[in-house]
Fold:
Amino acid sequence: MIDKKILHGGDYNPEQWLECKDILEEDILLMKEAGINCVTLGVFSWSMLEPEEGVYDFVWLAERIDRLHENDIRVILATPSGAMPHWLTQKYPEVMQVQENERRNLPGRRHNFCYTSPVMRKKVRRIDLELSKRFGKHPAVILWHISNELGGNWGDGACHCEQCQNAFRAWLREKYHTLEALNHAWWNRFWSHVYTDWEQIHSPAPHGEALSHGLKLDWKRFVTEQMTDFCRQEIDAVRTYSDLPVTTNFMEFFKNLNYHRLHQCLDVVSWDSYPQWHAAKDEVPVAVRAAAGHSMMRSMKKQPFLLMESTPSCVNWRMFNPVKRPGMHMLSSMQAIAHGSDSVQYFQWRKGRGAYEKFHGAVLDHKNGSAARTFREVSEVGERLSSIQSLIEGTVNRPVAAIVFDWENWWAVEDVSGPRLDLDYVSEVLKHYQVFWEAGMDADFVSMEDRFEQYKILCAPVNYLYKEGYARKVRKYVEDGGCYVTTWFSGVADDTDLCFTGHHPLEDVLGVVQEEIDAPGEDFENGFIYQGTRYLAGRIREICGAKDTAEVLASYDSDFYAGCPAVTKHPFGKGYCYYIASETGTDFLRVFYRELFSASGLHAPLGIELPYGVTTAVRSGAREIVFVMNFCQEDVCLEGIGSFKDAETGDVYKDRIMLERFSCKMLCRTEA
Ligand code: GAL
Structure:
């Protein structure tokens, strides 16, 4: 925990209200009333901190930090690089991004900077150093917040200017040493793409090279490296006069940047979660995706993370923007805590009067002050967080199952030309996570570079790309007794996206021989019978053979490959591999994993099958807390749970527990 308290608060933009002393005073009073103990300052304040080049005005910020401190409210201090002042872009246009079409952006918006530009880096370093010198040891400040949502908002998140092109070429030289090696890795004899000079290499562009898989994969890797380097440079600057920990705010499954890489330069992982609650009456898909986001953030450092932003009410940037129904704010906040957050922070404290986000939900609306429903519900969250502080202190989530989610695989598998052009890696992964969620068993998300031995089940959906060393690790994992589940279109290419030839690298471990991959039209229905029920084969079906040592659990029932295995199980060493050859729905996965959980000795925390919409997550330390969450529109009653105590109220539940709609309870086992 970075603080003794569960943090509750959010983005605070007093610079928009400096002329209104009454508002600034009211802010502090109402923050206390709402149980706010931490605010994030300065995220987009550059023009108010450095109104002219080299002229700094920190008076307003110092006054606010002091006032917050007097009131025992902590500060997360942001570096302001997320949005550039106009004097900067006017004087140094090269700081603005160049898009894939090779046009430089005009001034304005945010996240509009080139992360290679030496001028940009120098100007950011200067303001960061000044902030660090002035506030880096202030007792109110607990954490540095580097920039904002790196890589967000524009195109592929990258800058394509000449300086970035040169940096890319230098990065490639460092990686491949020779053009011969690069030409081989990218298979450049194809369509006569052999490079004879490093200067011939350009970033991918819609009106240029958009079809070279190797180039595109390396470009994405480079963008992550360059952005990480930019972030690292900011960290260096703020650390010059300060020892405080650093974070930057991530955005769930965000394709532009490989967070498994970026998090390595941070002390704490934090993220901004904006689920689309109330898009439909069935909240489960949204709850699953939000839970997955939390689990992913937690899994990076295997430590609690911070929920850096969420809305207390609605957002303003979707086509339609429902306000949270009563109860949902508490439930979604508790969901974050349940999956490992040590904070509930919002965007933002007070709604601005003008500009793009004036209708985005905030703790304080334009009208009605503390009488508003949102304010009351936020205050209830504040009260609850402070009362559960001692219960969750020192606890962590330690799931025994993990799902491989790897950015490089994501980039590669969605860029393949065939077998379908609409492969959606995140949806495939979420199908598996949903089954864990429905069973009340949280799972970690790991990259191919992680360690696996602490998990009883490791599942790797659509694991197309195998990084160097990954196959070896999986082999060892299964040999030592692990249970490995993988699917169609896995183990196809190496980490430069060159297809493996001869054999699948894990053929002997999986016990299957991949032959063809079929992606037929809708008329070509196929299916397979698993434990007496027929399930539809999806849009992509692998045709493979099973080794003698494999057990075929289900076979296709139609077309020329009727009788070929659709699902197999194969013993290897002390463990087992399962291969799901066809795309399937969650209907099949539910039944499949239920079997696997019991075979692997995994038990849901409440020991019962949960009704649809209800889930559990566990944080443990000195004690074990089971969070039970109900995302249904109705109250539900869980029966047969044995004896549990409500960790908050002390009530004892014998065998049954009532959960109101959109609610969460925290339970511990009773001694008996
Ligand atoms: C985040 C961003 C915030 C705010 C918020 C609105 O992506 O970091 O500054 O714009 O979205 O939902």
